[in-house]
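A reminder before we start the practical. When you read a complex entry, don't treat the lines as separate problems. The point of joint prediction is that each chain is placed relative to the others, so the output describes one connected object in space. Small molecules and nucleic acid strands, if listed, are placed in the same frame. In the example below there are two entries. Take a minute to note the order of the lines before looking further.
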Amino acid sequence: MTGLTKRYGRTDALRGVDLTVGKGELVGLLGPNGAGKSTLVKIACGLVRQSGGTAEICGAPAGTAAARRALGYLAELFRFPGWASADELLALHQRLAGSDGGAAERAELLELVGLAEARERRIETMSKGMQQRLGIAQALVGKPALLLLDEPTSALDPAGRRTVRELLEELRRRGVAVLLNTHLLSEVEQVCDRVAIIDRGLLLAAGRPDELARPGGVEIVTGSGVRTFAAASRDDVPEIVADLVRAGERVYEVRLVRSSLEDAYLAAVEAAA
Amino acid sequence: MSDVLVVAAHALRESLRRRVFAVVVCLTLAFGALYAWGADQLFQDVTGFDRNGIGLDARTLAAATLLGLAMFGTLFLGVVLAVFLTLGAVRGDAERGLLQPLIVRPLGRRQYLAGRFLAAASVAAVYVLLVYAGAVVVTGAVGDWWPQHPVGAGLRLAGAVVVVAALALLGSIFLSANANGIAVLMVFGAGLLAGLLGSIGDALQSHTLQTLANTSSWLLPFEALYRDALRVLVAEVPGVTGAIVQLGPLGGSHDAGPLLVPYTLAYLLAVAAAAAFAFGRSDL
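Here is the predicted structure of the whole assembly.
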């Protein structure tokens, strides 16, 4: 995506966003509500037309049949026909995606998201979490090169989230690119190769999670309490400990403090406000 | 084309599994039974009027009027079916989150619309033809009266519900499901009302009412098709009886002329083009 803009009436949802997701790369998209994340994802999958800039999926302009053929998508607010079974839903999407995977592909996808036992179960009898996992299986029909997931774990319990994290790591091993739109920073921190922080339609920061999380000093636990050296780094630790020992302090523990991705996220969003 | 058929089959399977068709069949059978019973009673009652002095064929009058009413009932039921199969096809399904997973597939938006139209129009048209054929058979079997051109009237009736299905699909791009359903049924009612006013205008020689009816016929050709179907049904009835039955029930028969069928086809193409254009530019 290059210089992507989107205007709804007088509101600028996107104001020139540049973003690339490489092959097999897992990119997390972070931002507060109304930042433009879902708009960006919807432009990528052709549900929304951009006002300016370019968006391409595997070399094809977003929204074209060739681009849609290369992607899988799970919307933030989705619903599947309640009367259908999990297997029927996947069969429908196989027909629409032109997949010739047949029953084997459907069984593999249901196994992948932990729904192998629910193959014949009607969707309206499934919990929201099960439907969300089925949604991920649906997005994977036809072996897409790029997966666009909009809040894929919002209705999942911790075990379900772990299943999705493991699934994302498996997809990375298979070379599938993933753009993950989520509010869960811990999730992004754990699985994403890169993070893009977006707010009010602008890309505020992008990089590896550990790049965005800055050093935050050194904390040393001594006999007289915790001493904080905010400006210190890892290289300063031996000298600080030596000074403390020389001064008669007993040193029990040394902690390198790093700002979390959450701190980096909040700093970026507040700086832009 | 295969994508169109996949979408159409999916829409029909949903109606089948949601028991829409089961409900429609049960209620239609009840309607048919009531119609047969009513027809039997009516033909028994008019037997005594056969020997009137004004040349009125009471049996023909009763049969043509009854079948005209059945045609109106059939049209109404077919329209309700067409509307309910399409009222939330685009915006309604998008608001519920059902549409997006389908539209992001290689399937194009035009193919999606075509599939939904194919499902609704074919079901509504076949339904109308079957119910109408049933009414013709019952009227003939019970009253011993058969229309001269039953096929032409039935096809016009089927064409009318196809037009309504197309309008409902177009409306679904702009309106939520409830609003679209209400709007299309109101348009349908307004069209029939304009036809009725046209008949009054013909009787009173009111140029204003005639113009109103003609304009509505061009804007909403389902109304013209319905009145033309009534005309085809009773066109061959002679004498005083013919004059009375051509006034007909609920709007009366009206000759829309030879351009009606080609105009309707062009109208459907225009609605399809407008729907494809509007849907293609919609953000979901």
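Discuss with your neighbour: The longest helix of chain A spans residues 158-173. What might explain this?
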